[in-house]
């Protein structure tokens, strides 16, 4: 059974929650998309320390989920960035899968200030009322705080990676363009072109030349929401600046092909992508 994760060295912080709509994570799977829960992968926590935690940020604490091998570490660390649906069981399971591979994996609930995603049932509403109102500067700072939390809780700050899915794939690109401490990034079907607004002023393609670490992008050839030409243009812009980017496209995969709890899941492509992701992290010093 998962247990709360120890917050070594950070106990002096009060659990300030004023201004945070979510103070704990979603239990089970999101209600905001079609689910095929019978096919969802369940990774047990045997041999792990895994569970919900609180991550100190500038204005309080974010709820988050962390998993790591039992032991002192320090363990190579991967920040896991959610889809738009919150840190629900699929994201938690992804953290446990990474922990079984030897990592400390931690997923902060980046939208905790804006809405309670556990009660939201409409993905269009989530995008309109939550995602579009989330400043990029805030999530970048929150991920920096999450990396600091990990380094204080059995993680190795010198072996830091990031992995994200869907909107979290977009955010993976942006975070890899932001944090020079990163060693590697893996973006699963992350949009590189997005609307520019005052609080989300730049898309990943705008900053591709500023990548701070090697990035692997995993995309579906039948993803109707992301144009392959846009992804390749971002990759070429990065390569033109001397950055290392590898894009792998699965010809028959739709958007969300790794999400095993959804109809979009494609087992063979998801498993191949997972092995590519682990190899990428190890190749670039996160392992």
Commentary on this structure:
The protein has helices spanning 89-100, 123-129, 136-152, 167-176, 228-240, 267-283; strands spanning 48-57, 60-69, 75-81, 104-108, 155-165, 184-188, 215-220, 245-250. It is α/β, with parallel strands linked by helices. The chain has an 8-stranded mixed beta sheet with strand order 1-2-4-3-5-6-7-8, sandwiched between helices.
Task: Summarize the SSE layout with pairings.
Elements: E1 48-57, E2 60-69, E3 75-81, H1 89-100, E4 104-108, H2 123-129, H3 136-152, E5 155-165, H4 167-176, E6 184-188, E7 215-220, H5 228-240, E8 245-250, H6 267-283
Summarize the structure.
By secondary structure, the protein is α/β, with parallel strands linked by helices. Helix content is 26%, strand content 21%.
List keywords for this structure.
alpha/beta; 26% helix; Rossmann fold; 287 residues; disordered N terminus; eight-stranded mixed beta sheet
CATH superfamily: Alpha/Beta hydrolase fold, catalytic domain
Give the overall shape.
globular
Strand content: 15-25%
Catalogue the unreliable spans. 3-18
Give the SSE order as H and E letters.
Answer: EEEHEHHEHEEHEH
SS element count, helices:
6
Tell me the span between the first and last alpha carbons.
26 Å
Which class in CATH terms?
Alpha Beta
Major beta sheet, specifics? 8 strands, mixed
- Taken together, the total number of domains comes to 1
